[in-house]
Structure formats: C-alpha cells, structure tokens
UniProtKB/TrEMBL annotation:
Protein name: BTB domain-containing protein
PROSITE patterns on file: BTB, MATH
BTB domain segment(s): 206-273
Organism: Tigriopus californicus (Marine copepod)
Domain annotation MATH: ranges: 39-165
Stretches the record annotates as Disordered: 1-24
Length: 381
C-alpha cells in the first residue's frame, strides 16, 4: 500500500491536555524484497594437459532455466590458453555468452585438485554480459602453479576446471502494515530523577540543615539517611545533632558542601574543578558515600598536574585510594625535579612519608639523579 494511502487512513491526533498523557495511534509497516538467482556449475576435464600447447574450447548448453518470467535454454562456451604471455608462463581462461540476448551473471573459475578441492579460484563480480561477449582472466594463474604440483593438480595428467555461473532472475517485493494498539507517551511525564532535582532545588518540607562557615543548607533527614549509613546511624541515636536538627561542618568549604548535597539528591554534581573535587572526596569518605568516592577519584585522575600531584598523592594515602596513590606516584617519578619545587611536595613529605620513601626508592632504581639527603632534610624541616 502506498505511503500516501497509509497516511490518509491515520486518525487525527486528539488535542493535547496539560493534565494527562497524550494518546498516540501508531502504525507499523514493513517490506521484504527477494533476489531470485540461479546457479550453473560446469565441470571441464582436460586430459594430458601438460602436452597441450594451443587454445582449447568447449561449448555447453543448459535447458529449462527458469529466468523468472519464462523458461530458457542457455548456451555458453569456455576457452583456455595453456601457454599465454611473452614467456608462455601463464594460463588464460574465459567464458563466452553465446546467447542472443544480454545476461546478468557472475563467474567463478576454479582449478580442482585430486581430492576435488578448489585450489585456485578467481571471481568476476555480477555484471551484464552482452550477447557474444567473453569475460575472463588472461593471467588466471602461473603455469608453474599447476605443472610443478602435477601430483596434486594433474592426477593421471588430467586438469579439472569447474565454472560457476551465478545468474540473476528477478527481484520480487512484498509490503504490508498493521495498526499498533494505542499507547501512552510518558516522555513528558515527571520521573524520579526529575522529581529529586525539584526536591533539591525547592527543599519544601525540609527538616534538617547543614551549616558551613555561616552558610546554611536545608535538607531532608530521609535523603541523608538513605544515602549515608553514617547519617542513618546518627539519626538512630539521641545525640545533639539529632535533637537540634542541625549539623555544623567547618572542615570543608560552602561550595564543596553545596555540591555534596546536590549529589545526595540527584546523583550528580556540576563543579568539577580541582579545588571542589579535592574537598568532595573527604566528605564522601567521611559519610561513606562510596559511589561519590569513586567518581571523585576518576575526576582527580583527569585533573592531575605538576602543581597538585603531591596533594593528590596525600589524598590517596589518607583515604586509602590505592589508584590515586599509584597514579600520583607514577606522575611524580616522571617529573621529579619539577614536582619537588612545589609547595605540595612539602605537604607530601610531612603527611605521607611512606609515599615519599616509595618515590625516592623508585627514582634510585631508575638511576635518576636526585639529592635524597636534601629530600630527607626537607622532610625533617
């Protein structure tokens, strides 16, 4: 059925309503096309091939070929030159269309061995072959490929050639359609992620607050307890923070705490600067928000630089983030002189001496000229 007819039968879409989901009638249409082919296989046995010097030909007929619209009798000729080229070291082979009309077909020439296996094969892709046209390969293979392997290729002196003709008959197509039952579209309806984002932005019915450096962040106990087993345990006991419905966090920054609260509600945060992410990691570790710990570590690995790599190494050491510690160590060992001139290196010496020792040992193994006595002196200073 034509596309225009399908469209004519489609019902008009009902007017949209802001208070309910829209109903849409759907139709599914499909088509299938079939390429009908025929295959002709002709086997040609040439006795005493080695003694052959001149071109040899053979004509064969196939009667009753179904060409789709009618039954036809087809006629072809094969020809071979056993010695072709200036040095007569190639074998040529051709197929000839002896029919009175043009035909569309492919050709595959095969030289067989004594086990009737295809050893040498070449294909001519499907094309229209004009009446009385020949098509083949003037240098199908080198003569030595056959003669030098006579035991396998010429059993009792006989060469076997198999020609495969892949004929094209017609293309048939069928199409149909059916109506799919009416369904509700839900793309425009609110989902959990969207509702949680609204809850974070509006903070309606908030019953708890987090404070940092004079900035207050209202929130819901239910969300905090759902996302953190530390808060769940806190709210289960009659401690000061539970009684006053307020918790003061002065060991971070307001921006880091804002991003932390946003993550608890939406599973996402948008400030991915090094300063904020490096402060988010301690919060995530402190309140055991494991997913946020992993996300922070991935961001820090992308943000590593000469200036902050020592601080990242300390974070990896303090919060037992092995991948952070490992990657930071590798980075420092790549650029030791530049890193040791930064202020962060002093913090690494003081806060993670074990990491420094591992770095110094690794540098020594690599024969990198670093004044280890000066490094140790810096650490004591």
């Amino acid at each position: 059925m034509a596309a225009q007819e399908l469209g004519h039968n489609l019902p008009e879409r009902p007017p949209s309503s802001a208070s309910s989901a829209s109903s849409t009638s759907s139709y599914h249409a499909w088509s299938r096309s079939f390429v009908d082919l025929y295959t002709i296989t002709h086997e040609w046995n040439i006795e005493n091939f080695i003694e052959l010097d001149e071109e040899i030909q053979v004509v064969f007929r196939i009667n009753g070929i179904d060409s789709g619209e009618s039954t036809e009798n087809l006629k072809f000729k094969m020809s071979m030159k056993p010695k072709y080229g200036d040095n007569k070291d190639f074998i040529s082979i051709y197929a000839h269309n002896l029919n009175r009309k043009d035909l569309r077909y492919s050709l595959v020439f095969n030289f067989m061995n004594k086990k009737n296996e295809k050893v040498i094969s070449r294909r001519a892709d499907t094309r229209v072959h004009n009446s009385n046209e020949s098509w083949g390969f003037p240098r199908f293979c080198s003569r030595s490929e056959v003669v030098d392997n006579a035991e396998d290729m010429l059993p009792n002196g006989k060469l076997t050639i198999v020609l495969e003709i892949g004929g094209f008959k017609q293309i048939t197509s069928r199409s149909d359609y059916q109506k799919v039952r009416d369904t509700l579209t839900v793309d425009d309806l609110a989902n959990l992620q969207r509702d949680m984002t609204v809850a974070y932005e509006d903070m309606i019915h908030s019953d708890y607050s987090l404070k940092c450096q004079g900035v207050e962040f209202p929130c819901h106990k239910f969300i905090l307890a759902s996302r953190s087993d530390v808060w769940r345990a806190m709210f289960s006991h009659d401690v000061k923070e539970t009684q006053e419905n307020c918790l003061v966090l002065d060991d971070t920054s307001p921006e880091a705490l804002r991003q932390f609260v946003k993550f608890l509600y939406t599973d996402n945060f948008d400030d991915v600067t090094y300063k904020t992410v490096s402060q988010l990691l301690p919060l995530a570790e402190k309140y055991n928000v494991k997913r946020l710990v992993v996300i922070c570590c991935k961001h820090l690995l992308k943000l590593v630089s000469i200036d902050n790599v020592s601080e990242i190494a300390v974070l990896g050491h303090v919060y037992n983030a092995e991948l952070l510690r490992q990657k930071a160590t590798e980075y420092i060992c790549q650029y030791p002189e530049a890193v040791m001139k930064t202020s962060g290196w002093q913090g690494l010496l003081q806060n993670a001496p074990d990491v420094c020792s591992a770095i110094i040992t690794r540098l020594a193994r690599c024969s990198i000229d670093i004044d280890t006595d000066e490094v140790k002196k810096q650490g004591r200073g």
